[in-house]
Amino acid sequence: MDKVIVIGSGFSSLSASCYLAKAGFEVELFEKNSTVGGRARQMVKDGFTFDIGPSWYWMPDIFEKFFGDFGKSTRDYYHLDKLNPAYKIFFEDDLITIGDCMDDICEEFERLEPGSSQHLRKFIGQAQENYDIAINKVVLRPGLSPFELVTKETVLRIDQFFKTISQEVRKKFKNPKLVSTLEFPVLFLGAKPNNTPSFYNFMNFADFGLGTWHPKGGMYEIIKAMKSLAEEVGVTIHTNSPVSHILVSDGQTIGIRSQGKNHLADLVVSGADYHHSETLLDKKYRQYSEDYWEKRTYAPSSLLFYIGFDCKLNNIEHHNLFFDTDFEKHAQEIYDHPQWPTDPLFYANFPSVTDASMAPEGKETGFFLVPIAPGLEDTPELRDQYFEIVMDRFEKRTGQSVKEHILFMESFCVNDFIEAYNSYKGNAYGMANTLRQTAFLRPSLKSSKVKNLFFTGQLTVPGPGVPPSLISGKLVADLITKQVKR
Fold it and tell me: Using one digit for the tens of pLDDT, what is the confidence trace for 182-229?
């Protein structure tokens, strides 16, 4: 039986481990932190439960397919609720509530721009077709060749790879609030809407068509489920086990070194940050130069605040977006002229609004996120400055005073992403899915310099986000299985 060592325990690593074990490999996983989950970790403090990483559950079909591949269902591990409303968007002079069905969403669009619901239904219809092509055909390919993008369906939509989301949205919708609402989902892909191919409007179907869900107990329930499944199929998991070196002999990997001890294997898969993974190799075995990494476009980093409130808050939903400042300007300060944002947009998550298990009775769990450029200076003074900005705006938009109700606050930013996850420049979501960083143009699943060394995760294919990470794990496992079994 061939032995595989997997580095890291995020969604992609756990996914790869499960598929490899199912295919008959002996699998050992090494995680540097004390708990599995990679960026999807959990913090529990004084009865408050925080997902300190991903907090949106989109594309429920991808999760169902993953567990279904092992004869299981998400229901075997956790309970899902569809959120209604899905989320609320605060603007300077209004707010938009996104319901849990197209009829409600169309009604809200009509309120702001009469006649827009007809355009919306057509736009989401096209997005649904793209979703089917993307999820069932394109993303299931390993990114080894440009010809993987050539299918009967994509050829008919070739123009959508050269037009942008921004162009398509603004052609049909004039109200700037609706434009922001439709452009927001591609931020999950880590790039500006005017730099993202319009084919990626399938994210709008994921949003409006499939809805926003919540696993009871938080997103970490998915990690617990995957850990449980991994152990069921025979994966051995080592926590508190940072990897210091990927071992190579005669151009082939022979295992890893962790805490001064060599662990031998026939193959190695790294789901850790791709740039960091290559630094675990001697220089001659690295595929990509520092200059290469420097020139890529990365998804944002984040400044995060985790707050326990001593009371229930007013005028909020589970998910809340604060677009009450200039969307374009903030995007430019992330991508075009990297700097701390002048007037940031932000996101606020209160899981205890719909899930009582996430906070003590009568209290509220709050998670605030400010997207920022990766690689910025990160100091306690800057964190404090932006905490005040976010709290002041939050109080103003929701019409309540909250600062005196804060029991505790913890923050997480660029330095923490680097320390906790070896994240390149402290990015939070990986490499952006721009036209020049799509499919075969992303860092490869398979090393071109070291035999039997593979990579998975959000810096390789298919890209950033939780569902793509699950798929990335499957792709690399399939690639390995085909190589070894043929």
Answer: 998 877 567 788 888 888 899 999 999 999 999 999 999 999 999 999
Give the pLDDT confidence of 277-302 residue by residue, as tens digits.
Answer: 999 999 999 999 999 999 998 989 99
Question: What's the confidence (pLDDT) of residue 435?
Answer: 75
- List the single range of 117-126, 165-174, 196-205, 453-462 with lowest mean pLDDT: 196-205
Which pTM does this prediction carry?
0.95
Q: State the Cα–Cα distance between residues 472 and 321, nearest whole angstrom.
A: 28
